[in-house]
Amino acid sequence: MNLDAAKAALAHLELDDTPASVRAKSRDFFWYSPVLKARLDHVVADFVVSPRNEAEVIEVLRTCHAHDVPVTLRGAGTGNYGQAMPLAGGCVMHMKNMAGVREIHPGRVICEPGIVIRDLDAITRAQSGQELRMTPSTAATASIGGFVAGGSGGVGSVRWGALRDLGNLIRLRVVSMEAEPRIHDFTGEELHRVSHAYGTNGVITEIELPLAPAYDWISTFVAFPDFPTAAEFGARLADEDGILVKLITVCEAPTASRYFQRFRGHVGEGDHVVLVMVAPHAMPAFGTFLTRWPTGRMIYRSDAPDWPRDPGVAYEYGWNHTTLRAIKVDPAITYLQVRYHGPDFLSTIERIRALFGPELIQHLEAMRENGRTIYAGLTLVNFTTEERLDEIIRIHEDLGAMIFNPHRYTLEEGGRQSTDARQLAFKREADPKGLLNPGKMIAWDVPDWDYSTIYSYAGLRPAP
Amino acid sequence: MNLDAAKAALAHLELDDTPASVRAKSRDFFWYSPVLKARLDHVVADFVVSPRNEAEVIEVLRTCHAHDVPVTLRGAGTGNYGQAMPLAGGCVMHMKNMAGVREIHPGRVICEPGIVIRDLDAITRAQSGQELRMTPSTAATASIGGFVAGGSGGVGSVRWGALRDLGNLIRLRVVSMEAEPRIHDFTGEELHRVSHAYGTNGVITEIELPLAPAYDWISTFVAFPDFPTAAEFGARLADEDGILVKLITVCEAPTASRYFQRFRGHVGEGDHVVLVMVAPHAMPAFGTFLTRWPTGRMIYRSDAPDWPRDPGVAYEYGWNHTTLRAIKVDPAITYLQVRYHGPDFLSTIERIRALFGPELIQHLEAMRENGRTIYAGLTLVNFTTEERLDEIIRIHEDLGAMIFNPHRYTLEEGGRQSTDARQLAFKREADPKGLLNPGKMIAWDVPDWDYSTIYSYAGLRPAP
Ligand SMILES: Cc1cc2nc3c(=O)[nH]c(=O)nc-3n(C[C@H](O)[C@H](O)[C@H](O)COP(=O)(O)OP(=O)(O)OC[C@H]3O[C@@H](n4cnc5c(N)ncnc54)[C@H](O)[C@@H]3O)c2cc1C
Ligand SMILES: Cc1cc2nc3c(=O)[nH]c(=O)nc-3n(C[C@H](O)[C@H](O)[C@H](O)COP(=O)(O)OP(=O)(O)OC[C@H]3O[C@@H](n4cnc5c(N)ncnc54)[C@H](O)[C@@H]3O)c2cc1C
Q1: Domain FAD-binding PCMH-type: where (chains A, B) (predicted)?
Q2: For labelling alongside A405, which of A8, A189, B188, B461 has CA 20 to 30 A away?
Q3: Which of 364-393 (A) contact B at CB < 8 A?
Q4: A10 in Cβ contact with A60 (< 8 Å)
Q5: How many CB pairs under 8 A join A and B?
Q6: Does the CB of B159 have a partner CB in chain A at under 8 Å?
Q7: CA of A80, closest CA in chain B: separation in Å?
Q8: Please, where are the H alpha helices in B43-181?
């Protein structure tokens, strides 16, 4: 890698090599995981470049390719698995300057990748009364490109399924890292080459996404004295196709009382809380549904607020914000990502609760999968050791719950522990030197990896 | 009943007693059923009154109550079970003059009952880019009040479920038939008192309904060489939460070749056809989905039409329009209304096909029920005798398919063969003399009816 030559060639762009800011832009929310924290805390790039347009993206890629400099993409660095961290150093390409909205049509938007999701929603809302179908709970800071390349779903998935489900992405424009970078426009099955590929095989420079109508979603919180009822309430509510909701989050006690500061005084230690975002015109039906659950108490609704301190929007208590709030209060907490599906998913959850007791605190997110309501679990874990964490994962799998391990920095280990042939094939074509976000795709480095232990990228630059 | 006194008192309203037009306005699409045709063909009211506003509705009800004149509501008379037919004669109250749209908001509309559904959709679309969540395939002629009082779902139910599911109706304003009629505003559980009650216990004078975004839906037709694949294609497509569709209709061969005139030359006798309405921004994903079904051929898409004669919108081949087109070609055909649900609903359909052969031609409509995709069947039946029809129904029930019998004119027999306690209780309150649409609610006439034979209303005015 010829760093100096690359930096010199790129000096006319927005380039930053101040150590403190390079270090800041080399990190994401990997520290959610004690496992990743122990391994990646020292990771740092050599410089950060922030292209203003696709031509500059191409220039960066061509130059870094010529000088064998690794390039790791960065949106806002809110990913949780070190996805955006430059394991082998080199260049971090920051997308913040590419934040334009190109076209808004009924049902879709075309934009650049670096725009902050909340800003994008504000623009489509103002100009067309529409918003994204789904956003991560980090919408206020995360970029849309980072969501497409590193996210999986979130607020809105209760209605629309996961981000990679057919129809939730329309088109991605991608630049390859070759001697002469090429531009691809991907639709259909080809979208899977680069969506959720952590930027390992191309740079997304334009995104076309479907839009849904924007409503003034109402945040409501419902407390239940027992957890199985709360979980059932959430699942049955998600099954009500006529009640338009955008979020159904179930937090086992004592999450709300202990970790949600603004909930203090409104919930007890024993309260299990369901957070729901409801369309205004669905509030009457939601109210009717609620009366069928005699033990459920609506403790807050943002359209008739009666808490002295505004708790803020519901979604910033959901998805990985639940974890964030818990870690802030108790740094010993970490989490797991679980999928409970199949005909008996509520019983699976109960069996797991019975087995673990307070070592785990359940946090469920209702979503759609193949036309069914399922729960994604972002279980809070009282962390002790890595060995115990692995054991907890094994027990979940034995009980029929699927785990997406958030304590791994590779695509495969965070996914289904198998090679995505489409991503790998496209990497061969689009990144022949293997310079894009190195160390994140095991299949590229070690094709016959057996997953029996945590993968450790050989090119990981050692701590100085 | 003192007809002359009632007519005299109402003479200053829009009142019609010309025999030909009274007879026309006393009939609906009951003739779809040979069973009802044999029983109701002679039914005729004494006069028709068309109130211009709620005050006139109240005046009609007060007057007819005073003179013991039955009142049967009429929207557009497109119902299929004689719902709008005045079995005991008397007054038909026609709602065509009450067709105003009162308010349009994000996600909802408030209107009068007499407006034609297509006109309502055109107004909400023009003013707000929104349309009704669901409409009957008769949207071009049917009234919204008739849909709420007599319909069950339709185009859009693949996404939103049935009309009576929570959230699909917001509010109904209802006038009772008492000495001094009262006005009720129903929301929540109370909606069930009057929705799908055939106007037997109140007159709906104002309706608040949810709206969804209006898109320029694309009509597509896909042909399959075998039926089970076509049925599976439709069900799996309905499970794709990210592919926004409004209609998925599966027509077994030879429906399309034999009964859909404009399809001639484009399909063969053996083609099973799936009709799909797709949002424009969902067309790429729909195309991707389709490529996963190698035996499916897209034979038409309205955004790139290549048929010499425009086949028109897909929904006018779906729901009960399929039946209409079949009857027009072959008057010996009638139909059944079936629900296929449960984990194995596709096999149930196959078992029924195997058993009946060409006596039945399958027609399936994908819809949501409790968060699941199911099929509503509007099976075409080669009619022979009433006894055989009853036997066909019994066999369906034995095989686990639920029947809503369209060859009956009462609420109970067309539904689950049991009293709706909420409707009955409200009728006691709102129509103490039993003058509203008499003969349609068995529970009112014969509380201990056992359903072993077809109900025959004792007050049915005999043929002259
Ligand atoms: C509190 C909290 C809550 C969260 N909630 C959710 C949630 O609800 N749902 C969810 O899916 N995730 C969630 N996340 C994870 C993360 O916030 C989201 O996925 C977010 O969308 C990432 O966006 P970003 O701009 O921060 O991406 P980054 O973290 O900067 O990048 C993510 C990945 O995308 C790559 N990348 C970025 N831009 C490009 C590009 N233009 N081309 C190619 N590759 C690119 C990066 O290299 C990296 O691998 C959460 C994280 C936190 C800390
Ligand atoms: C070809 C065809 C296709 C069809 N497709 C569908 C379909 O997809 N889905 C579906 O649900 N139905 C369908 N139907 C049935 C029917 O067309 C619809 O239910 C339609 O909405 C009825 O509206 P209408 O104005 O014609 O009602 P009408 O037939 O006039 O009345 C229906 C019932 O409502 C009562 N009523 C009318 N107005 C009021 C009021 N203001 N207050 C109280 N009661 C009132 C009447 O007394 C009657 O009992 C179809 C029928 C045909 C012939």
Answers
A1: 40-214
A2: A189
A3: 368, 370-373
A4: yes
A5: 141
A6: yes
A7: 25
A8: 54-66, 117-128, 144-150, 157-160
Residues A390 and A413 sit within 8 Å (Cβ to Cβ): no
Specify the residue for token string 């306690």.
B421
> Do residue B371 and residue A161 have CB atoms under 8 angstroms apart?
no
Own/partner long-range contacts of A457-460 (Cβ < 8 Å, ≥24 apart): A457/A87, A457/A88, A457/A409, A457/A410, A459/A87, A459/A88, A460/A39, A460/A43, A460/A87, A460/A88
- Decide if B167 and A240 are in contact by the 8 Å CB cutoff: yes
Structure tokens at B227: 């039926």
Instruction: Ligand 2, residue B174: give the atom nearest the CA.
Output: 42
Ligand 2 atom nearest B73 alpha carbon:
47
Token pair of A368, please? 């759609």
- Which of A188, A211, A284 has its CB closest to that of B170? A284
H or E element at residue B289: helix B283-291
Nearest chain B residue to A367 by CA distance is B241
The C-alpha torsion from A53 through A57 and A58 to A62, rounded to 10°, is 150
Closest by CA to B70, choosing from B49, B92, B54, is B92
Distance CA A314, CA A247 (A): 8
A3-94 and A101-214: same fold? no
Smallest Cβ–Cβ distance between B107 and the set A133, A168, A279 belongs to: A279
The correct CATH number of B101-214 out of 2.40.110.10, 3.10.420.10, 3.90.79.10, 3.30.465.10 is 3.30.465.10
Sheet holding B71-74, edge to edge: B15-16, B47-49, B91-94, B71-74
Q: Per the structure block, which two tokens stand in for B329? A: 């070609």
User: Where do the domains of chain A lie?
Assistant: 3-94, 101-214, 218-404
* DSSP H helices in B11-109: 19-24, 34-40, 54-66
Q: Do A167 and B287 touch (CB under 8 A)?
A: no
Residue nearest to atom 1 of ligand 1 (CA): A321
Taking Cα atoms as reference points, which of A226, A271, A228, A274 lies closest to residue A250? A274
> A284 and B242: CB-CB below 8 Å?
no
Q: Does the beta carbon of A143 sit less than 6 angstroms from any atom of ligand 1?
A: yes
State the CATH class of domain B3-94.
alpha beta
| Residue with CA nearest ligand 1 atom 27 | A146
Q: Is the beta carbon of B204 within 6 A of some atom in ligand 2?
A: yes
Per-residue pLDDT of chain A in tens (464 residues, 90 and over written 9): 999 999 999 999 999 999 999 999 999 999 999 999 999 999 999 999 999 999 999 999 999 999 999 999 999 999 999 999 999 999 999 999 999 999 999 999 999 999 999 999 999 999 999 999 999 999 999 999 999 999 999 999 999 999 999 999 999 999 999 999 999 999 999 999 999 999 999 999 999 999 999 999 999 999 999 999 999 999 999 999 999 999 999 999 999 999 999 999 999 999 999 999 999 999 999 999 999 999 999 999 999 999 999 999 999 999 999 999 999 999 999 999 999 999 899 999 999 999 999 999 999 999 999 999 999 999 999 999 999 999 999 999 999 999 999 999 999 999 989 999 999 999 999 999 999 999 999 999 999 999 999 999 999 999 87
Give, as one character, the DSSP assignment of residue A248. Answer: E
A285 closest CB neighbour out of B166, B213, B239 = B166
A289 touching chain B per CB within 8 A: yes
Q: Report yes or no: A103 at the B interface, CB cutoff 8 Å.
A: no
CB distance from A107 to chain B under 8 Å?
yes
CA of B115 to the centre of ligand 1 (A): 49
Cβ contacts (< 8 Å) between B105 and chain A: which residues? 281
**Residue in chain A nearest B289 by alpha carbon:** A166
Q: Rounded distance, CA B240 to CA B249, Å?
A: 15
Q: How many angstroms separate the CA atoms of B46 and B438, rounded? A: 14
